[in-house]
Please model this.
Amino acid sequence: MKKFVNDPLNFVPEMLKGIALANPDTLRYVPEYNLIMRADAPSHDKVSIIQGSGSGHEPAHVMVVGRGMLDGACPGDVFAAPPMEYVLETAKLLASDKGVLLLVNNYTGDKMAFEMAAELAEAEGMDVRTLFINDDVAVKDSTWTVGRRGVAGNFFVMKAVGAAAEAGASLDELVRIGEKVNSVTRTMGIALTPCTPPAKGSPLFELADDEMEVGVGIHGEPGRRRATLVSADEIIDELLGAVVPDLPYSSGDSVALMINGLGGTPISELYLLYGLAHEKLAAQGITVGRSYVGEYCTSLDMAGASLTLVRLDDEITELLLAPAEIANRVF
Amino acid sequence: MKKFVNDPLNFVPEMLKGIALANPDTLRYVPEYNLIMRADAPSHDKVSIIQGSGSGHEPAHVMVVGRGMLDGACPGDVFAAPPMEYVLETAKLLASDKGVLLLVNNYTGDKMAFEMAAELAEAEGMDVRTLFINDDVAVKDSTWTVGRRGVAGNFFVMKAVGAAAEAGASLDELVRIGEKVNSVTRTMGIALTPCTPPAKGSPLFELADDEMEVGVGIHGEPGRRRATLVSADEIIDELLGAVVPDLPYSSGDSVALMINGLGGTPISELYLLYGLAHEKLAAQGITVGRSYVGEYCTSLDMAGASLTLVRLDDEITELLLAPAEIANRVF
Model:
């Protein structure tokens, strides 16, 4: 295993501590619950937004806490759902008079932890709603998930509800907005290499030198098929061929296009993919109204990328354009 | 080779085209000279700032073009200096009445191309100055460089002169500021894996499963020594042990601390390293006044990281804090 790590069992706490030390004025780390929260949260003028899942997907979600984004992130260990008690305590620490919204990618372990925590929080009198994101078109139902999985498209749901919450929207309104964004968002990814969880110390699966995994999940779960590695052009054709007809996105649509890196792929390759996807969409009459290139939801050190489309309307565009501030996005 | 690529010989142009397509309102791509420039440049109210080197170090420099940063970036092919003619034409396209500043990492090939281009531009009546960055403490003199190499610390020189240029500083003033920032900036890096240039198709060097390269250059050049991979704690001790005494940075100093990823290392590991470095500096009485964690100057897909310190004073802090806008840093 070639990683910067001390005791692999301390990987997540040491990372969280680093995030807090790098952002002493804006973020707070609560080690008891693996929690990263805004230093100025909760505010009773806005709904608190909390997102959680296993670690290993950074910057999601612990590095996107800040004004106009998350109020708190509650991660589990690498690729493991957070304990239900941690989610509950996080919700209590961030309880707002306007309510609490929990954002969860649709994976069975995460779903269970957050649903149970929400029930207990409600029993304690809190106003809590849970919103599940399921943007991955690759597979439906698996040993990991009932229904579709939530992957990089969670960024758009989070950004939209984060902006609306900052503007004072109610909990009901945020649920409406989040469900709407989720309903027009679709993603599929391709892995070129496996990833290595620090505590395991070896790759989660094997890929031959000439192979790729089409439709890979963000924990290295199998996708649609194992295939021979092809050119960037053919890979974008495959991804658009799965994503575009699924909603479907149609000629005349304006979309946000995200090329998300899975952790080990350099940004040069992501921009190369972006250019190809942008032009192929234009050839179908689909216009890119907003572009996102970089790492948003990763799988540790996996080389690979995912492509996400969001169908834009005026409401979604305005929410995506709203200002936001997050950890260390400094020039 | 596991990369997203079409014809490897088109890797750089296809990446540059992607950058331009993702930023249609703010950036312009001039294929004849591999040039990415601000769409609103040149302005005769400010000195134009151009940075160049081989490609493969993204986001440096083609992805940091924008207000308060670079006016243009002129990259060569992967790990190859840009042709002298391209640098000259870039300088001409960005010629401003206030002059042109060329920023160059100190590598022999880049130095030759930019010095010759500057001479020719001056012969054509342009006011051009060239500033060399040499922040890498690892090695002095090699087959690649006379003197020290320029690596991730180039970001701080660029950010400072970019901010000062936006505020209307003269070319002489920018040279003074750039030399000052360079003089208080020191870096050293560690590679855990080699990197693979697309056109070569195989790794530039070999590292055994339990080895790291201490003091690696940003093109995979050898550093101080090949060593057995150790814990993150010991790696930070090694990097601080080389960087801190070099200037030296001393108890009572306030510094900017950058943990820069070399391309294949996930940001989770970079924050883990950041936390360790921050605390070890504090134990020496050195305060981190500003933190930078992420990818600033990479080596393609190399797993590894570098640590940079900048001794802060009021002038440098103000320039680092000044607003800046670059490609796709959107939330």
Observations:
- Chain B touches chain A through 69 residues (CB under 8 Å).
- The mean pLDDT of chain B is 95.
- The longest helix of chain B spans residues 267-283.
